[in-house]
Design brief:
The complex is a heterodimer. Chain A starts with a helix and ends in a 15-residue tail after the last strand. A six-stranded mixed β-sheet of chain A has the order 5-4-3-1-2-6. The radius of gyration of chain A is 18 Å and the shape is globular. In chain A, a hairpin with a 5-residue loop joins strand 3 and strand 4. Helix content of chain A is about 35%, strand content about 15%. By secondary structure, chain A is an alpha/beta fold. By secondary structure, chain B is an alpha/beta fold. Classes of the chains: A alpha/beta, B alpha/beta. At the A-B interface, helix 5 of A face helix 9, helix 14 and helix 20 of B.
């Protein structure tokens, strides 16, 4: 049987690199992992609803803490897709529960034993999400991690949202996708120190 | 000084919409990117070795799939016909649908895209009128609500079926509700009109299980994309989609694929290509995978395609390209994209006037605030407008006027049937008050709250216990709904005969299959093809709001 030795060596090297650099799954059953997208905390550092990334993350953390659970935050680079980000967080989580959040604010509660494109709760309409919602997302994820019977957050729906926001969402997602790299491993998230605002809204 | 006129104009709804200038480098261009490839093909020994300027050793997996499974290497001489001549043939009533389909079997995605570039929207509508697969157009509804309330799904699907929708689609606000939504839709639809097909759009593995269990009778959310990175983001390839389609086919379920312009730009991976060229690649992938049909027309990315010049024309072009490839076309119109009533109506006329297999692939059968596809282009508040449009233009848009009495009757029956099934199968409790509220409701603002945690537990129990469509039939039969039980059973029987897997199939109220095989489109110019007439015209004419001559 013919082997492409060069290809085998390349695949082996990439897989080994990914294994070495990926944070391993936590052993703490009280932990919920928050996964943020590749561009989170950079650039304008605001969601499509104009909420600062640091404030959003603080609310999610507070929600988890209120339920007496622990959190850690990772930054996912392999994809800009919210389902992939959430699933990666869940896979690293000691409780099996993870929260994924894109730079534009789209969020998901995911669980490690689900298919990537399934979820526990999905919040697809980011322009409608307030800080109170993000806190509740943290709380609900923590409650699922505790094994409670949880009432999902009421579905937010604005039928004109596509007309008003889809172009802006695409532009934000393009920036996030530019930072994505299939071969770059997930890392512990380090919040960047506040950068001075650029004039004229570039970046 | 500020102009009063400009103040008025600035406040018009259309100026709340999002518009952007062409930007081919990011894929924000509708039909002809300067980076689109020039059409070409080279065949050696029966294999395609070059397609649209790319040699085989540089094919991505979409190219390879199309070259191996879609384009007929024996028909590639049709590439020698100029794109302008093919465009002429499309609008020529003396050139048959079959001749166009034969030509299309041997040309490449870039060539078909180039053909579209020669057509204006009126010519595209003329071509679509000829190229639609099924003789009679039809319509599809979305049936959802923000509470994921199964009683409201049952009532709205019963009303939608009564109003004429041939297919009804639900989805979820909370994913774990899927099995309950699916069975509520299945039961409610059969109360409204026997033979209506139903689906539940969720994550693909879940959706397949729902189909295998007999909780749905078709599926359409097998998504394909025009560039490799977007496909990979969805953890997919054309090959895996073909495999999924085969899984449905093996269990006798009708399916169609889904694609649409704008998805690659929205996902940030358009590779500088025009939206229409990338959509052509999607359609060729769907065709190569053996799908009988496609849902396309930008679909959920319509905010992107509609934001660029000639975008709405491109949406019509993609429907037409699908019909040319001999696919059933469920032509979108299913997603809100404009604040302007004028603009959203104009967009829909492009499919409504020529007719497609399903003019909407999701007309909101509820008020748009309850539409969990983030709003459709038309909703329950537009029912009377739509009926008048059919009457004004003598066009069959697939719907019909109904009376308040019959709507209330089917809504109540559907609610009671779902209540009985839930009790019999020991799912979640549905009270008489809930059924009554839903019967007379417009949307979820008029209904009573449900215990979401209990409903989700019931959905999980439904799946864990291995219940199937036959358990629904049994539950209906044992609780006094023998007629509805028979109807649901007849829907399950379709899975055994499989006739409704033919191109463009719908069922009439006696479960006869109406498809492109036994009722094909035979339009050949004025006076030919399907025309509104007879009983159907009487039905369309008879709107409730007519002045009573005698009363004056």
């Amino acid at each position: 049987m013919h082997h492409d030795e060069a290809l085998v060596a390349l695949v082996t090297r990439i897989v080994l690199e990914q294994l070495q650099n990926t944070p391993s799954r936590s052993q703490n059953p009280k932990e919920v992992v928050i996964g943020v997208g590749p561009a989170y905390g950079t650039g304008g550092a605001k969601t499509i609803n104009d909420l600062s990334h640091s404030a959003v993350l603080a609310e999610i953390k507070a929600g988890i803490e209120e339920e007496g659970m622990d959190f850690s935050v990772v930054q996912v680079f392999k994809s800009s897709d919210v389902a992939v980000i959430g699933k990666e967080a869940a896979d690293l989580s000691g409780s099996g529960l993870g929260i994924g959040i894109q730079s534009k604010g789209t969020a998901i509660i995911h669980q490690t034993d689900l298919q990537i494109l399934s979820n526990i709760e999905l919040f697809p309409q980011a322009p409608l999400l307030t800080l109170a919602h993000y806190r509740q997302i943290g709380k609900n994820a923590a409650k699922y991690a505790k094994g409670e019977s949880v009432t999902p957050i009421a579905t937010q729906n604005d039928p004109m949202i596509r007309a008003a926001y889809q172009v802006k969402a695409a532009l934000m997602h393009i920036k996030e996708t530019e930072k994505a790299d299939r071969n770059k491993p997930t890392q512990h998230y380090v919040a960047q120190s506040a950068t001075p605002l650029m004039k004229g809204g570039q970046n | 000084m500020k102009s009063k006129r400009f103040e008025i104009l600035n406040n018009r709804p259309v100026n709340k919409d999002g518009f952007i200038a062409e930007w081919p480098e990011a894929g924000f261009i509708a039909m002809a990117s300067p980076y689109d490839p020039k059409p070409s093909i080279r065949v050696i020994g029966g294999a395609i070795v070059e397609m649209d300027g790319t040699p085989r050793d540089q094919f991505d997996f979409i190219d390879a799939f199309i070259a191996d499974y879609t384009i007929n290497p024996a028909k590639t001489h049709f590439m020698d016909i100029s794109s302008a001549v093919i465009a002429h043939k499309l609008v020529d009533i003396n050139i048959s649908r079959e001749e166009i389909i034969n030509i299309a079997s041997g040309i490449t995605p870039a060539k078909l895209t180039e053909v579209m570039g020669h057509l204006n929207v009126v010519e595209m509508m003329m071509a679509l009128q000829k190229m639609r697969a099924r003789g009679i157009p039809a319509n599809q509804a979305h049936i959802t609500n923000v509470k994921d309330d199964p009683v409201q799904i049952a009532a709205d699907s019963a009303e939608g079926a009564l109003r004429g929708f041939a297919e009804e689609e639900t989805t979820v606000g909370v994913a774990r509700y899927a099995p309950l939504n699916a069975i509520a839709l299945l039961i409610g639809s059969q109360v409204g009109r026997p033979g209506v097909l139903t689906q539940c759009a969720v994550e693909e593995a879940t959706e397949l299980i729902l189909g295998i269990r007999g909780f749905t009778t078709y599926a359409e959310t097998m998504s394909v994309y025009g560039t490799e990175p977007v496909f990979i983001d969805g953890d997919d390839t054309p090959y895996s989609k073909a495999f999924l389609a085969s899984a449905y086919a093996s269990r006798g379920l009708k399916t169609r694929f889904t694609s649409g312009t704008g998805s690659e730009a929205l996902m940030g991976s358009a590779q500088k290509k025009s939206m229409l060229y990338l959509e052509a690649r999607c359609l060729y992938a769907a065709k190569g995978a053996g799908s009988q049909g496609i849902q396309n027309g930008s679909v959920s990315c319509i905010g992107i395609t509609a934001s660029v010049p000639s975008g709405i024309r491109a949406v019509l072009a993609e429907n037409l390209m699908a019909a040319i490839l001999d696919l059933e076309v469920a032509s979108s119109n299913d997603q809100s994209f404009s604040h302007s009533d004028m603009r959203r109506t104009a967009r829909t006329m492009l499919q409504f006037l020529p007719g497609t297999d399903f003019i909407f692939s999701g007309y909101a059968g509820e008020p748009n605030y309850d539409n969990l596809f983030a709003g459709s282009n038309f909703d329950a508040e537009d029912f009377d407008d739509y009926n008048v449009l059919q009457r004004d233009m003598m066009v069959d848009g697939g719907l019909r006027p109904v009376s308040e009495e019959e709507v209330i009757r089917v809504r109540e029956t559907a609610g009671k049937a779902v209540q009985a099934v839930f009790r019999y199968l020991n799912l979640a409790e549905i009270t008489d008050e809930q059924v009554e509220a839903v019967t007379y409701a417009h949307g979820s603002k008029d209904t009573l709250p449900r215990d979401a945690a209990a409903d989700i537990a019931a959905a999980e129990s439904l799946m864990r216990r291995g219940l199937t469509g036959l358990d629904i039939v049994k539950a209906l039969y044992e609780t006094g709904f023998e007629d509805i039980a028979q109807r649901v059973l007849n829907m399950l029987k379709q899975r055994i005969t499989g006739d409704y897997m033919q191109t463009s199939a719908i069922l009439d109220e006696d479960y006869n299959v109406i498809s492109a095989i036994n009722a094909p489109n035979n339009y050949k110019g004025p006076g030919t093809g399907y025309r509104v007439g007879g009983k159907r015209w009487e039905e369309i004419k008879n709107i409730p709001n007519i002045i009573d001559r005698e009363g004056i």
